[in-house]
Design goal:
Blueprint: E1 3-4, H1 10-18, E2 27-36, E3 40-46, E4 49-61, E5 67-73, H2 74-87, E6 93-104, E7 107-111, E8 118-121, H3 126-129, E9 138-139
Parallel strand pairs: 5-7
Antiparallel strand pairs: 1-9, 2-4, 2-6, 3-4, 4-5, 6-7, 6-8
């Protein structure tokens, strides 16, 4: 079964973030994994009070050598994050769906949501990924 992704280019994320009608929209991104931080507990505030959540930052790079930081939260930070740490030296291509954008300390950053799915593609040839139309990439 083929999965259809609707990728957004890194350069378009900030302009979408600045448009109110696009703010909070979930996007799909992909790139080569270049950094995985250790997971950490981050204090958060909700309407029911202060809590701590597990978070892990990763960085991917696209064909144009643009870097994008993505914060993985909770189970994704722990489970998928541990897998990513183990394969980091292989610089795998990852696909992450349903991410949202936010500004943190003035820098644009993506973050996973409860609907996000992370796919690890270690055996995909780079030429297949960086195709003529990577925004319509289909992966088996």
């Amino acid at each position: 079964m083929k999965i259809q992704y609707n990728f957004v280019e890194f350069k378009d994320i900030e302009s979408k973030f600045d448009k109110k009608e696009e703010f909070g929209k979930r996007e799909d991104v992909f790139g080569t994994l270049v950094r995985v931080e250790n997971s950490k507990m981050v204090p958060t505030k909700t309407t029911s009070g202060a809590h701590s959540k597990t978070m892990r930052d990763i960085t991917i790079v696209n064909k144009e050598n643009q870097f994008m930081e993505i914060s993985l939260w909770e189970d994704m930070a722990i489970n998928e994050g541990d897998k990513l740490q183990k394969v980091l030296e292989q610089n795998p291509i990852i696909v992450i769906t349903n991410v949202t954008a936010k500004k943190f300390l003035g820098a644009l950053q993506l973050q996973s949501t409860v609907r996000s799915v992370l796919k690890l593609h270690q055996n995909v040839q780079r030429l297949n990924i960086w195709s003529k139309d990577p925004m319509k990439l289909m992966i088996h």
